[in-house]
Amino acid sequence: MAEQYMNDPMQEVFIFETSQQLEQMEQSVIKTEALGSYPGETINEVFRIMHTIKSSAAMMLINNMSVVAHSTEDMFYFIREEKPQYIDVSTLSDLVFEGIDFMKLELDKIKNGYEADGNPEILITKIKEHLKILKENNNLTDSQVVNNEPVKEKYYISSNKAAKISKPKTYQTILHFAEDCGMENIRAFTVVHNLKEITEAFKCIPEDVINDPDCVEIIKRDGFMLQLKTSETQAKLEAFFRTMAFIDQFEITEINELQEIREELNILVADEEIMVPQLKNPALEMAPVKEIPVANGNQSQSMISVSVEKLDKLMNLVGEMVISEAMVTQNPDLKGLVLDNFSKSARQLKKITNELQDMVMSIRMVPLGPTFFKMNRIVRDISKKLGKEINLKILGEETEVDKNIIEQIGDPLMHIVRNSADHGIETAETRILQDKPRAGTITLEAKNAGGEVLIIIRDDGKGLSREGILEKARENGVVGPEAVNMTDTEVFNLIFLPGFSTKEAVTEFSGRGVGMDVVAKNIEAVGGNILVESIEGQGTTITLKIPLTLAIIEGMNIRVGESCYTLPIMSIKESFIPKAQEVFRDTEENEMIMIRGQCYPIMRLKDHYQVKTGATQIEDGILIMLEGETKSTCLFADELLGEQQVVVKTLPKYIQRMKKIEGLAGCTLLGDGNISLILDVNGLTAQKRLKN
Questions:
Q1: At what angle do helices 121-137 and 89-111 cross, to 10 degrees?
Q2: CB 523 within 8 A of CB 432
Q3: C-alpha 386: how far from chain center
Q4: Does position 297 have pLDDT exceeding 60, yes or no?
Q5: How deeply is 66 buried, as exposed, middle or buried, from its count of CB atoms within 10 A (0-12, 13-18, 19+)?
Q6: Which pLDDT tens digit goes with each residue over 670-689?
Q7: Which end of the chain has the least Cβ crowding within 10 Å, N or C?
Q8: How do residues 332-349 score in pLDDT, each as one tens digit?
């Protein structure tokens, strides 16, 4: 059923644009609420967005969204026109957020192929009651601004500002849509649908904007022409077209003397309607026009919208090309041959392949800003419901990450921010007693670090209690007597164990630890890791280290016996040939090596994966030091085969369920046609730590 949604271009555009509009409005209302009053631009923005959603939802026959948007539009129209002096900002924002949440839920239903069947009556009643109170508190009970028939659409004229209805006039309008909007025929259809608010007598050119395959190019070239008969003034028409999304500019001409131009335009005028045939060249035959740019100006942009599915397919094709290039240039049949011309061509092919890969990767990169800004709403809701004062500070929101990774880290980020606000930040009274600022601060920061992105969530709350965590861990049987030797980092990472929580009372937002195991799994699923630092009484810092992309990585191929494995380059600290006298065993017979005064555990891949052949003596192989989440491990292999860009392929699900292959992140195809298993460094170091 979800495929049906994806194959319906109008529904796809509706969901995409409505989602963007709701996110934009949500952020505006959050900023406004912090100011304590609603400025004119926010009131106009909410009114405009609700007006657009009302019309587009009605056009898509999603009536429950349309009536909620209509009721909200009524309320903000009253505020805009009557300018009440007393507004309960908090209650008004709550109603707006309830409407946003309702519409987001309905959009999710449509995305998943279900019917948008939510009942809006309770919410509409709340809005109407608040509007009634708003009017009473401001002595505006006699106003007739609001229409009490939510299904019937109208074009608003304030009762105390409306002019007398004038004699119907005929206007000719040419609309020009933004260059980067795409689907101009659907934009035109939306305009036609909304015209019913001001007139039923109109003619459009092109006429069939849905079924005519040539209409998109016509609209791009000549614009979308309308001729309509209405009693509204030209100023009202201009205001009407300004509410339409993606209109870059429009031109309106009033045709005053119909009788004189009837023969020229062949217009048939009746009492109720006006019919206009298509002009041969509207641009030449029109009278002088008035050009009115819409807000955001007439800036032309050379951009188009592309489906994420197409980008995924393109990325897969580039990945296959990288593999094919390696198979050609590293073909075993070429060993020992001196092929100067071939080598020159191969280098050029590799250069072009790398540039194409970098370009496709850059297309898939999107900023973290929208994901970060969603956290404003979470912090706002928690602080209000728990009676806390919390500020959210966002830094580095322009940092870019692969779109697929952003989709994976959204939920983990929400869990961490939610737990920081609920469990970390104290109440204002408690903070004052501790000589802290009355309002707590959560900082959300992103920055690049080589081939990775660091996302840092920092709060100035009460921090984590080492003893509290260890006590809970002992109760659950997670740790034993060895806990006294655990570092703070190892102790703090216990909060990511399933069901682990130190919070005494579980609220609707949960305690730190409830859901944190899901956080760890999701971050590890994208090849990232988590580091927790905390000072009791001062705050907690959680750092997510994630790769820029999942599709293609820089890898180091290593050999163990006749098997090949690939390590991510970013996880390798150094490699060296060990000496037998440097290796020793600890009290539990674990193999260790001393390097520059520091002890590191040794993991033999030959034993770990039960490889039948390969080096046994330590001096016959090589050690590769890997930097994991909390500890480093030295991996013992036969030899390094060399660095190579590798395309990450997912392991089959039946293999993923096998416990004995833990520590694998995927697989890839090498230039000689053999398969190499990609090692999960965090998984390997974690297993070594548990064994120790």
A1: 160
A2: no
A3: 27
A4: no
A5: buried
A6: 777 788 888 887 777 665 54
A7: N
A8: 888 888 888 999 999 999
